[in-house]
Amino acid sequence: MTPRAHLTGLLACLTALALLALPAARAQGLKLTPGVSGAPALTATPALTTPAPAAGSASQSADYIVAIVNSEPITNNEVRERLARVIEQNSGQTLPPREQLMNQVLERLITERIQVQLAQEAGIKVDDYAVDQAEQSVAQQNGVSVEQLHRQLAQEGVTPERFRRELREQLLILRIRERDVESRVRVTDQDIDAYLRDEAQGTAADTTQINLAQILVEVPEHASDAQVAEREARAREVLARVKSGTDFAALAREYSDAPEGRNGGALGLRPLDRYPALFVNATRSTPVGDVVGPLRSPAGWHILRVQERTRGGAPATAIQSHARHILLRVGNGVTEAEAAHRLEELRQRITSGQASFEALAREYSQDASSKDGGDLGWAYSGRFVPEFQQALDRLQPGQVSEPVVTRFGVHLIELVERREAQLTQREQRDLARNAVREKKLDEAYANWMREQRARAYVELRDPPQ
Question: What domain range includes position 63?
Fold first, then answer.
């Protein structure tokens, strides 16, 4: 598996982080429905790209402009780079003829450029702190450090600066979609009733989700055969301890080299397409509670435990989390970095015992939950925006997160308790509403993008080659 193959699927997940539904008023927009995980312009356009041809090569010297989008050019080399990415992502699948595929890639680049321009014209900005957090999130989901991520990208000719620039552009695209697409979507009780009828008849789309925990025994880059064998032996020793009854979370905290290891290794309840294919394929038929591994990836040896699995719509039970948060909004001269610095100071006061989370939430939090000490009540997985949910999933009861950036500002999160609970009829309807809204968001995005494409000035020049 190449470094890019290891990263591509998880980078695609990053582009689906912010297309979510309208907030519930009680938590000032925190409790949201799942986003458009299948929007065409998201899932096929991860931030990672293939390297440009080397300076002086024939293809570089022959580079030329293939399209103008408003005032910005798209070059032949940009199309070739994206084409190489698409071919790699779809290795083993039947693709259209090269000329047709190139035209599709060019159209995708045009729509992306339009969205970035719209975001810039709207004054939408992405602070360095948000890019830092996105970069860390990609690294964590790949089970590597940011430094290791950079080294893997360098093997593909992608510099950290280029990678961060593309992350920033993807975040701009997500934020303009959040602003302009969500308001178009409405879900009625009739929509929910129809979905539930289809589900009862077995016609609803599969919505399988899994919650995995992992222990990663890292293998250094350029490791010798002896080092690889030694790390595999260590992984097998850990696996033997798991199978003998030792607590998985305790072993993850002791042995795992992955960032989430210190929190017991839990990766959180996610749709299958938000896990690496290696993990999905290995656990497809594994019962809840069982473990598999060790599995080899470029990062090292993985041991996986299936924590939870839901299938076909609203489950009868679900894992719920009771959380509190402190929200500081950005804007009006306050940057995300400044808000994060202030929250880190509050976090130090909480963890040192100088103040309680509830007291500081009442004093500082800038949303409606402040009067309740930041209490967000009980919520099942997926009810918060992905950045918030991912941070919450990594916590153990009593732990407080690092500052977390979302569209609403910057948060501190405390996990009070976690439980498995029987869903009420109302909660099951809420889950159905989420599924219906996701489908409608797909449709709303497609309509919105057609409108923006029609309004933009697009000049097609010589076709890409």
Answer: 3-187
